Amino acid sequence: MELKVVEVPTIKEPIQSAPGFEKKGLAHAKLDLSALCGFGCRYCSSNNGNYLRINRKPFAELARQQLGEPLTPGDDPNLMYVWPDVLGNLEKQIARKPRHWGEGQTLVFSMLTDGFSPQLVKDGTTERALKMVLEGTRFRIRILTKNSTVGSPKWVRFFADHADRFVVGLSTGTLDDAWAKEVELNTSSPTGRLRALHHLQDAGVPTYGMLCPIFPDVLAGDGLERLIEAVNPGQCEHVWAEPYNDRVNWQHVQAGYAPGSPGHASLSEVFGQGRHERWSDYAAALYERLRHQAEAGGWLGKLRYLLYEHEIAEEHTPRFKDLAGVWLQSSPDPDGRSRNPAIAALQ
User: Fold this and answer.
1) Is residue 49 within 8 Å of 112, Cβ to Cβ?
2) How many CB atoms lie within 10 A of CB 230?
3) What does the alpha-carbon distance between residue 256 and residue 217 come to, in Å, rounded to a whole number?
4) Which one, of 122, 47, 134, 50, lies nearest residue 90 by Cα?
5) Is 290 exposed, middle or buried (0-12, 13-18, 19+ CB in 10 A)?
6) Which residues contact 48 (CB under 8 A, 6 or more apart)?
7) Which one of 35, 129, 142, 326 is at 20 to 30 Å from 85 when CA atoms are compared?
8) Strands 207-214 and 236-243, how do they pair?
9) What pTM was estimated for this model as a whole?
């Protein structure tokens, strides 16, 4: 379907700190180029984040003025909120900073949206923004996208020419193109993203794996193992992985599965019926299989398993062993240890 674009007020400083991603070991700062990107992933947590929630009414009114409908992200996945002055504001922000700004730090492009949204790529916003950051800062830039265009000859050359400044990853939590077409709207297919990742790796561009989120049905058969193999962990700097945690959009995600299928049933049990012990078991099983593959392949030191551990049941805690490769994400106690007593005992 055609993208519905609405202009909203541009934030003054596009580059901002990223404490949430710093906690995940991904980045110190972030650069988003739009308020809502052109990829309508049904599980996207950004749609319910503080920024869009606070601005829901004024942005809906702007949509009414510009499109004739007071649309919000929950109303239409083909909606995009753009910042018309983002490049100008980015240029001004960088000009105010010293030349060594970002030295020794990583900037993620992007955190809440996708900086490679097709419209931004087509009109040149993406390339111009990246060149500004390259020329005016010392950040290392972590590309995070679902657009396989990063594996095209043009972009492979761009990243390869600045290989010391970039590390590129394509978020891919499934190998099922048909499912993704129903849930990850407007994105490149998972197999297309993986081909792009391989093109980058073959060209010597630094890459990382981003298996986020991995849904319960991927654990069926050897689906997870095939997904891990597809990202070539040996050629990645790190491999991030995460179970599906969202409590808000689960019904949109469930609609991507056939009724009666394992994926459809598991989401009903965990989120519809509130059977949190099933989520705990799934999160533990996912970690066990990731760890097994990492140990067998010699890349356990690269694993970054993002775990909101407050809902891990005591009975499942031993399966996390010594927490190798686990990055705990729930709010800790003042002493820095987990508020989950069983997990704290492992620490």
Assistant:
1) yes
2) 19
3) 12
4) 134
5) buried
6) 248, 249
7) 142
8) parallel
9) 0.95
Residue linked to tokens 């179970």: 243
Half-sphere exposure of 35 (CA within 13 A, CB side): 27
Residue with tokens 């993203």: 193
| Integer Cα distance of 230 and 224 in angstroms | 10
Digitized pLDDT (tens) for each residue of the chain, 347 residues in all: 689 999 999 999 999 999 999 999 999 999 999 999 999 998 998 888 899 999 999 999 999 999 999 999 988 889 999 999 999 999 999 999 999 999 999 999 999 999 999 999 999 999 999 999 999 999 999 999 999 999 999 999 999 999 999 999 999 999 999 999 999 999 999 999 999 999 999 999 999 999 999 988 899 999 999 999 999 999 999 999 999 987 788 998 888 889 988 889 989 999 889 898 999 999 999 999 999 999 999 999 999 999 999 999 999 999 999 999 999 999 999 999 999 999 999 99
Q: Are 140 and 154 in contact (CB under 8 A)?
A: no
As a whole number of angstroms, the distance between CA 88 and CA 117 comes to 19
Place of tokens 């650069």: 31
Cα 123 to chain centroid distance, Å, stands at: 23
User: Looking up tokens 């900086």, which residue turns up?
Assistant: 115
**Which string of DSSP letters, residue by residue, matches 214-236?**
EPGGGGSTTHHHHHHHHT-GGGE
The one-character DSSP state at 108 is E
Q: Where do runs of H (alpha helix) occur along the chain? A: 19-23, 50-54, 56-67, 86-95, 118-122, 125-136, 153-161, 177-183, 190-202, 223-230, 250-254, 262-267, 276-297, 341-346
